[in-house]
Amino acid sequence: MIQEFKDFIAKGNVMDMAVGIIIGAAFTAIVSSLVADLINPIIALITGGIDFSNLFVVLGDGEYASLTAARDAGAAVFAYGSFITAVINFLIIAWVVFLLVKGVNRVKDAAIKKNEPVPGAPAGPTELEVLLQIRDSLKR
User: Fold this and answer.
1) What pTM, to 2 d.p., does this model score?
2) Structural domain that includes position 124
3) Rounded distance, CA 79 to CA 12, Å?
């Protein structure tokens, strides 16, 4: 059982996944900062400083100045502004990730094209041709 576990851990896929998760966690901090510190202020400037996160409806009695005050008082709230903010943040993050993946794919494609043989260049013998030459040599 221990050997099977070692074999499982030693597989490249598990290690690749672990590295991906670690990089993903670090990348989350970068993207969150991008959204909160750079993009959201631009959106606030365009929308006239509207803060969607404080838009809510109290489900029941009472009036509250902010969503935080309503939640602290234990009131049931329909916080549609927080949902709108989450959707905007998701769309921004998805766009940034799309652009990054697109850039990485371009770099990979350029590297693959660099390693491909030049069209029209003489190709070496195929495996079948080499095997036929070996067979013919052995017959002599």
Assistant:
1) 0.55
2) 51-140
3) 44
